[in-house]
Amino acid sequence: MLHFYYGPGPNPIKIALFLAETGMPFEAIPIDTYRGAQHEAAFRAINPNGKVPALVDTDGPQGIPATLFDSTAILLYLAEKTGQFLGETQDRPQLLSWLMFVATGLGPFSGQAVHFQHAAPEGLDYAVNRYRREAERHYQVLNDHLDGRSFIVGDRYTIADMSAWGWLDRAARVMKNEDRPLERWPSLARFMDMMNARPAVERAHAIMNGHAFKTVMDTDARHAMYPTSFPPVSKGTVS
């Protein structure tokens, strides 16, 4: 049995999409990150980094339970376990390359663009510009690659497409105040239209909506999400 630990966000929904595409049986276990559940000892035993998603496969290799964290690692594990969405053998180098492009570039820069535009204190113009422009640069790289292509790797739907979709689905947050955030990148817009037409996308969103997570970014949520940037206020402090 797969135990899928998830919360709201672009990385968990990638795993939800894989599970929806394959129909694999799983238990969805919500981790309310705005309430700080990712810092509890029981979850840290599964992911020492205190992030979602995480996965425990009680029927791991040779019958030994497997514990995984990081969406890219989980996608690779599940794809190899099922033999699905890996592309052709000759596509393996490109599959790994584009997975890492999302994991080390598109994802982190998009995430930081969201943070500095929506959560950080005002006045950090350099950081806003830095991460927003880098997110846009990664959009352009992927847009150029998808020109004339249906899929990111080879001519098949793979976990690279799922991984990119998870972050591109948040383009409206990354490209703050833009009504049509992918308009400047027509190949990305076409790619997202194709992805969102897949029936499994609706099922993935249903998985993610299976729990009423806290959504208000108040002081406690900021501390839970960004503890090094927003430390808790001492109860004895007088302002």
TrEMBL record:
SUPFAM superfamilies documented for this protein: GST C-terminal domain-like (SSF47616), Thioredoxin-like (SSF52833)
PANTHER family on file: DISULFIDE-BOND OXIDOREDUCTASE YFCG, GLUTATHIONE S-TRANSFERASE-RELATED
Tree of life domain: Bacteria
Family matches, as InterPro entries: Glutathione-S-Trfase_C-like, Glutathione-S-Trfase_C_sf, Glutathione_S-Trfase, Glutathione_S-Trfase_N, Thioredoxin-like_sf
One Pfam family, short name: GST_C_2
Residue ranges annotated for the GST C-terminal domain, each copy included: 88-221
Keyword Transferase included in the entry's annotation: yes
UniProt source species: Acetobacter aceti
Protein name: Glutathione S-transferase
Gene Ontology molecular function: any one: transferase activity
Gene3D superfamilies: 1.20.1050.10, Glutaredoxin
Ranges of residues in domain GST N-terminal: 1-86
Keywords: Transferase
